[in-house]
Each structure stands twice: as structure tokens, then as C-alpha cells.
Amino acid sequence: MELPEKLEPDNPIWRFALAFWQKPGAQRTCLALQGQGWSVTRILCAGWLALEGRPYSGTEHATVTEWRQHVTGALRAVRKYLPKGHEHCQALRDGIAGLELQAEQLELALAWQQIASETTDKAHMTGHAQLIRHNLAAAAYRPEQATDAAAELNTLADILASFSNGDSQP
User: Fold this and answer.
1) Cβ neighbours of residue 131 closer than 8 Å, sequence gap 6 or more
2) Of residues 131 and 123, which shows the higher confidence score?
3) Rounded to an integer, what distance in angstroms lies between the CA atom of residue 58 and that of residue 140?
4) Spatial distance between the Cα atoms of 10 and 14, rounded to a whole number of angstroms
5) What integer best gives the mean pLDDT of the chain?
6) Exposure of 35 by Cβ count < 10 A (0-12 exposed, 13-18 middle, 19+ buried)?
């Protein structure tokens, strides 16, 4: 895997992710979707793009996918393998959780690099809510994932809509 020479870890999507994660229900819903095989990075990119009035195609650069599989996913798998609350494993588990967060930030930096380089027009959908729902559905790896997760996607759509109703977007 070759990483770009320059990455921007503190980018608009990362700042959005930090703010979004603080919204009631966002963390719980995203982690529930992650447990169903969704990528939180893809959800965050889809949400940020919707707030920018841009559609999310669901395609991502191979480097983003490779990083997710071999770095972020590997760290997550190790962390989950360690027993929760075991006194001899807790410090290791916490340390790996910190590394996992750093890996997720770099994953978003890779995604940001792709998104920032794309020249796309604003979406021509009839409403902001429609764009949010379209983008969230496009974050699914398979169309049936979006159908199966309708309740979770509705929750995320409501949270994203609150950004456009006066909350400051980072």
C-alpha cells in the first residue's frame, strides 16, 4: 500500500465527524451499523457531502478501502478479541482503541483527499432531506444493507438534518 506523501488529518470531514459523534444517538447508531458490516467512514463522508449539497456516489479510492481492511479493521479486530474489563488486558485494550481512532482519522484523511480532488456539481434533488437519505443509502456496500437498516438510516438522517437547521457545521 502506498500512502500519499501529504495527508491532511485535520480536515473538514474529520471536524464534522467529531461534531457529529457528539450528537445524541449518532455514536450508538453508527456503531450498530458498523456491527452490521457498514463502514462508519463511508457514513461520515456521505453525511458531510450531503451537508455540502453534494451527492455521494459510494465509490472510494482503493487506498481508502485497503487502509480500512488492513489497518483500521485489523486494530479493531485485535481490540475486540481482548476481553473487556480484564485487569491485565484493559490498558492494552485502551491503547489499541487510541490507535484505532488514529487509524480512523487517517482513513478519513485519505477519503478527504479523494473528495477534495473531485469536481462535482451540487446535487439537483428536490430537497435536502432527499439528498441526505440518498447519500446514506449510497454508503451501503449493497442495496439490501440500506433496506435492512432503514430505522438506523432514518435516525442518522434526522441527526444530519439538525446540522442544516441552524447547528454550526464545522
Assistant:
1) 50, 53, 55, 123, 125
2) 131
3) 7
4) 6
5) 91
6) exposed
